[in-house]
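Inverse folding, one chain.
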């Protein structure tokens, strides 16, 4: 059992003989992984697909499983992939694909999986896979192919509501990387901020990645033609607003304010909470607004403060991100 010797995504994989598969796995893998395969046998036999999906996720997250992930996905998971949650299937497939070193095989694995996902019934899974394919193409230098898949993903994503953070993060992450590669600073800045709004800063990003992202955001804010702000780092004071204040500022009837704020929350333009009784909105984060050129003089000072207080900022933002996800 090895991820380096198998044929990835054969059109018609051999029919699973469960006992043979488990026996081969037990003989080829270290003892520390054996409890997973015994659980696979039990859950598959009992057709407990949800529990089997959870156990597979734990297996793929185990670092010891790395040499065997592709093989397990192709020889085992494919046998019942239509019976499990398609978004969870794609999440596992994307994780597994990262262990494929050959660029063509890597892309073929994801493309074949995409062909087996019903776009109409599993739109979030389809978007996640398109974004992941776009990212692979970007890594391997196919910029035009990246943009094509990004556009296809956005066409679907833009119509969906209540999308899981992981799906949004996949799209905004590859969009940010695409615009960074093209040195288009304003769209990089916007998509990068949207990406950060969808991830857990502590678990999804290493300290090095957080610092690199902070640096790139600062540079893009300075070099973009239309962005002159570090709005995500504004003071947290005076962020409670009444429905009346919002109605006056937006020129909307006060009875429409709650629906408008809920829409802004769902679109991740703001983070916070609504107090329906007192008719107030507590806002903990606002997508940065564009400032006038007259305010550019304060950027250098703010950037210095941002870097020196990065750890403090992360500690303050992390609970808000967790609370809104």
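Residues assigned per position:
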């Amino acid at each position: 059992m090895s991820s380096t010797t198998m044929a990835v995504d054969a059109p018609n994989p051999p029919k699973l003989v469960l006992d043979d598969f488990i026996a081969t796995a037990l003989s080829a893998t270290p003892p520390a992984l054996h409890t997973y395969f015994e659980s696979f046998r039990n859950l598959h036999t009992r057709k407990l697909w949800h529990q089997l999906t959870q156990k597979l996720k734990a297996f793929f997250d185990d670092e010891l499983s790395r040499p065997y992930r592709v093989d397990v996905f192709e020889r085992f998971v494919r046998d019942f992939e239509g019976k499990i949650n398609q978004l969870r299937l794609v999440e596992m497939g994307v994780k597994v694909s990262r262990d494929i070193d050959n660029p063509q095989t890597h892309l073929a694995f994801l493309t074949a999986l995409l062909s087996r996902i019903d776009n109409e019934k599993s739109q979030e899974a389809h978007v996640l896979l398109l974004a992941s394919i776009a990212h692979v193409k970007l890594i391997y230098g196919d910029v035009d192919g990246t943009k094509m898949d990004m556009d296809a993903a956005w066409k679907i994503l833009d119509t969906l509501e209540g999308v899981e953070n992981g799906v949004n993060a996949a799209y905004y992450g590859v969009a940010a990387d695409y615009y960074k590669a093209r040195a288009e600073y304003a769209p990089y800045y916007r998509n990068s901020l949207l990406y950060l709004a969808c991830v857990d800063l502590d678990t999804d990003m290493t300290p090095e990645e957080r610092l690199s992202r902070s640096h790139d955001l600062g540079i893009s804010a300075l070099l973009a033609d239309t962005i002159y702000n570090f709005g995500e780092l504004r003071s947290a004071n005076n962020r409670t607003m009444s429905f009346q204040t919002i109605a006056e500022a937006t020129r909307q009837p006060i009875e429409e304010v709650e629906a408008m704020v809920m829409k802004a929350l769902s679109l991740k333009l703001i983070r916070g909470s609504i107090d329906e009784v007192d008719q107030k909105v507590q806002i903990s984060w606002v997508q940065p607004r564009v400032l006038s050129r007259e305010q550019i003089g304060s950027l250098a000072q703010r950037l210095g403060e941002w870097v020196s207080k990065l750890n403090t900022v992360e500690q303050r933002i992390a609970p808000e991100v967790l609370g809104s996800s």
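The two ends are 38 Å apart (CA to CA). The first strand starts at residue 240 and ends at 242.
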